[in-house]
Write a structure and sequence with these properties.
The chain is an alpha+beta fold. Helices cover 56% and strands 8% of the residues. The chain binds protoporphyrin IX containing FE.
Length: 628
Amino acid sequence: MVTMWLQVFTNILLGLGLYVIFRKLTDMEAEGSYGDVDGPPNDHWFAGIFGGRLHNGLNYILRNTEIFGTVWKYAARYWAEALIVSDPLALHYILIKDQDSFEVADAVLSGNSLAFGPGLISIAGDQHRKQRKILGPLFSMSNMQDLLPALQPVVDKVRASITAQVSQHGGQPVEIDIPGWLSRASIEYIAQAGMGQSFDLLDSDYKTQDPSDFVKAVKQLRPLHQKLAFFQPIFRLIARYLSPYWWDAIAKWLPLPDHRKLRWCINVLHTTSKKALLQRKADIKLAHETRARSRSRSRSRDKNEEQFLKIRGKDIMTSLLVANSTAHEAERLSDGEILAQMSTFLFAGFDTTTDTLNQILYTLALDDHLQARLRGEIRKAKQEYATFQAELEEDDSDVSWENVELPYDVLLGLPLLDAVFHETLRMYPPVTEITRVAQEDTNLPLQFPIHSKSGIRMKTVPIPKGTPISISILGANYNKDIWGDDAYDFKPDRWLTDGGEFNRNGEKTHKRRASRARKMQDDDASHGSMRNGSPPGSGAQGGMKYPGIYSSIMSFGGGNRACIGFRFAEMQITQMLVTLLSTLHFSLPYDAESSVKSSRSSSGPRLATEFNGSLNVRLVREDDFITL
Ligand code: HEM
């Protein structure tokens, strides 16, 4: 009996002991302090790790994320410290759940305001909410559906001009400045969609013509911004206390020619948008007057109503003016706010879409098999759609499949094209990080605990008010816990269920439409849920996901500041690819790949910008298609 009680007593003691040890361990996880968060050593007493990041780009961030985990601290410029965060739960808190506690830095907002005026990237709080409310619907799927056919002539023109260059060489591969063509096409595409204006005829004898100031300004905007990146925090701080007038007056005297060029670009964009605004207002007035006149002559009313709706459906500026005129007074945007959006869209939309397009064509030039699969998918979709249309309209005229224009839902429902687009954005995000500042003391919970300098396992990170935070899109998109051990490999098939339409040998397997499930998930993400479990084809592993607006990838951001133009970018890039790939074949110029390889200091993702050159282009042949 005594032995039994002794045993019970010993077991209770053992249990208590274990409980105390367990509590101690879990307490230790919560004990880590902000100062204890680990990170790479400082490279420079004044510039911090700025130089390392600039020179080693993608690899610098990825290497440190592998070493220190999904939260690490680094020495920023001017003796400041900042956190780089790529943990999914932490990002959910920063961008969605606790978004009011993490805002873009005041200095960044005032700097953007100085450059672009009161557009989306320059404001916060209620004004930002007001602008998103009126601007969001302009980028809806139905508006994109209306814009798509209106923009097809831009894409056709580029293809015709490239084809003309190819044809001069009797169908043999010819080296063409594809990045140059893509950037011209993107400017024209965004300008027509955004303001209803054309700035470039996209003729092939462009080299002999002087590009318009507008085209020059858009092209130089981001490179100049990047060149001046080191000085931006200083400019922004000064700008906080000066009006644009005084800042302009003082900036003229600064010994910084790049800064003067940047001011020139901004003035050109502003003047151009102002002219476009006046013209679009005049168009709408005319349409109203025509409509009013037609009311008194009721027979022609429908026709004129149609004309008005046509204008309304085309460019974003007109749609915005129309939406503004019907909005409640408190929700309307001022002319200054409307103008600021145009420069903002050009700044945010031009390089990002052009770089992505460049990257996709470069990847396809490296991988002929993938290029042939994609072209096969495009041909099949166009042929099927042409047959469907012919049956519907009882039309038996023979239209060549290459010139068939796919409607929006078919274009975005092509599984392999969708997968290539997702995988390119995952691996080569044109924006690699976005920044926020903690507005109050807070605790950031982590999905993947980190080890502090003193060896503590931290499940949460205490963040003092004022801490700058870099959200690492790159770190998130390459996180092996989410994407698997092959996270560093370019594998579009990860976005297709069970290996996609083709297995690795190019043989046919199951086919599915991944897009619908994913788009539903996107809507979910934009409304702030952290769903536990990803739909098939979302690309992510093990039911964990990031709070990105676009599937589990963070490339378009997430939450209330997520990219407003993501559907526009998706439409532009897929429309360009479908049009170009139908008739043209792309490959690397003979020695390009080896020169890229030899110029690389370390292994890692291969960027089109490292190569940044021409591609060999020829007309397609039958063996350039892999068809189901
Ligand atoms: C592949 C193309 C694109 C990528 C990867 C991209 C990426 C991003 C990212 C990551 C953000 C979030 C910034 C933050 O949270 O601080 C953002 C915001 C934004 N993007 Fe994009 N973008 C693209 C194309 C476009 C296009 C075509 C437009 C306009 C037509 C556009 C307009 C904007 C605007 C206005 C914002 C600011 C939104 C706000 O603060 O409310 N973007 N973009």
